[in-house]
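Protocol step 6 of 9: fold each sequence in the batch and record its structure tokens directly after the sequence line. For illustration, a two-sequence batch is reproduced in full.

Sequence one:
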Amino acid sequence: MIHFTALRAKELSNRFGVYGRFYRTLLGGVEYSCRSVLELVERSAVATTDLQALDRHPPDLHVVMMNPGSSHPVPVETPIVLIGSLAEIEKIPLVPTRPDNTQYQIMKIMVARGYRHARVVNLSDLREPKSPVFLGLVERLRGVTGGERHSLFCDARREALQRILVPSPEVPVLVGWGRHVGLKGLAQQCLEKLADRVLVGVPVVGESVLFAHPSPMLQSMKDAWIAAVLNHPAIGR
């Protein structure tokens, strides 16, 4: 039997489906491409026709990362709705999404613990693959009226957050948004909203609100991250 850390991307993709909710929105008069939630689900656990019911299925694991990066629907020509209000985000259908290396790391955790469904959200919904550009957008939006809405953890989206994150101590929240100091404001806001949750992560040395990203460049560091997460009391078995 192949150890879960040695599982290839193709094997993981065959085992798990990845479905996201994509949208576009105007913040301060500028249009931004966003993704609000990502569902990683074992293909045998849900029929394609039941995708839109995934919201009502409590996951085995919650995950909070930095932002959706270059995440995009499959096929890439999938129309992405321009919304006018926060309430419309949850009405947008889930669509098949191309997985990336970070999501494969989460899938390996799922395989190791027998989880069939993980729900991923981010500090920010902004789809920007270049970290310096993303952090610049976050800084710009701090000075824009309503700009905070790019984050699910802002006060304006509190009710949506409560619907997305299952309020159960039995469902751990895996946190891993990285070590950049420019994330501290969003990270602190997130942690305040998760104060009553069981958090699992690899803390950045010397920092109180930053947690190591699941997919560092070196494979040895990727494996070390997985090992540290699996040793956490809330998720270790």
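Sequence two, same batch, same settings:
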Amino acid sequence: MANKFTCTECNFLNCQTRDKEFPRKCLTTDEGNQPVLADSLDAYGNDPQVAQIMLASAQVEGQYYGQLTRVEEIIVFAKKIGAKKIGLASCAGLIRENRIFADILRANGLSVYGVLCKVGGQDKCSVGIADRDKIKPGQYEAMCNPIMQAKLCNQENTDLNVISGLCVGHDSLFMKNSDAPVTYLIVKDRVLAHNPIGALNTGHSYYKRLMDGVKLNEADSALSHNER
């Protein structure tokens, strides 16, 4: 089955500039997508929370473009949406950085409720993870508990939750279970010092293997820990 034409295949980006023609199969002009466009515009205009977040996001971008770090942008955004209490979903491996972030938030008049990924203190095997799939088999290894992180933030009625370093997939579970809006501070990448764009910027050189038919699939997980 042929791949559907999407935005990643488009070289025009006329939706951004409006200075050229839309491609024939553009998602913007596709008749089947017009109800989706109408629904999204309706939400921006008629859902108070959506409208508030959309406006605040545009203001942060427009007023401070290229001037603020991500840390600063989160502070400004939080204040623009009227957030008082920030839930901080922290990776245990980045607790030092997240303590600094929490101090910065407090110094800027925001309350912080921090929840570590290992909250609950349960071994990975307790939820069906095989011992061989631990980093160090045969030992106690605490599972990450993003659902508990989110539910504790919900219990505290946080106004905005910030994910800071949660694992791929654990972040998905946190977002799925969070009542408050969620944004990111740190995206985890253990190899590239939490800078995942590095793999894309070097896709023509050091990470060219990702484009040369080296498939990352389930078979890779069958490697023994010694082989890794």
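Proceed to step 7 once all outputs are recorded. Observation for sequence two: Residues 15-188 form a domain with the Rossmann fold fold (CATH 3.40.50.11840).
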